[in-house]
What we know:
The protein is mainly β. It has four helices and twelve strands, in the order αβββββαβααββββββ.
Amino acid sequence: MSETERTPVDAETFRRGMRHVPTVVTIVTFDADQAPCGVTIGSFVSLSLEPPLICFNIKKDSSIHDEIVATDRYLIHVLRDDQAEVSDRFADPDRSTRDQLDGSQTEPGPDGIPTLRDYLVRFDCSRTQIHDGGDHSIILACVEGIDEGGPARPIVYHQRAYHAVGTQVADRNLPG
Ligand SMILES: Cc1cc2nc3c(=O)[nH]c(=O)nc-3n(C[C@H](O)[C@H](O)[C@H](O)COP(=O)(O)O)c2cc1C
């Protein structure tokens, strides 16, 4: 089939394809104008080593979109395999973003931004740029601090379910 004959991939087909792609699960917390907020984000990736940049995406129609792009500091918590409930809590559209920051799971962190008590690793970031990404905004941020939360396994999201990172299948056999 030639390029011109291709029908565009609709949202449902795209979504189905992307379900095969495992993602990390993070909670991004920040201090918005009104009050501190947090949200579950799976689009977190490393972008650049020098300078140390990361990026993640936020839906433009999310209730916290305007606040998250307006703020300039984020704490990005990578979750452990025993924290599926925390991910669901911060992804629940029926909960107020303020309620999600339940005192039992968070405490005041750097710059007064709430931090989860437990995580695999936390990246403390400051926003550098916002880009347009279709129905999402892409947030680029510089990593200014890293806090390793102690030995644990990461959780991944795959096929609409949470999984622990499993069996090692091979060593990396390339130099570097
Ligand atoms: C595993 C997982 C990953 C997610 N990743 C993102 C993401 O990268 N960007 C985003 O905008 N929403 C993501 N979401 C959805 C948001 O967490 C969710 O839409 C939001 O918290 C609900 O509030 P809203 O109704 O205001 O959008 C993810 C949800 C889950 C469960």
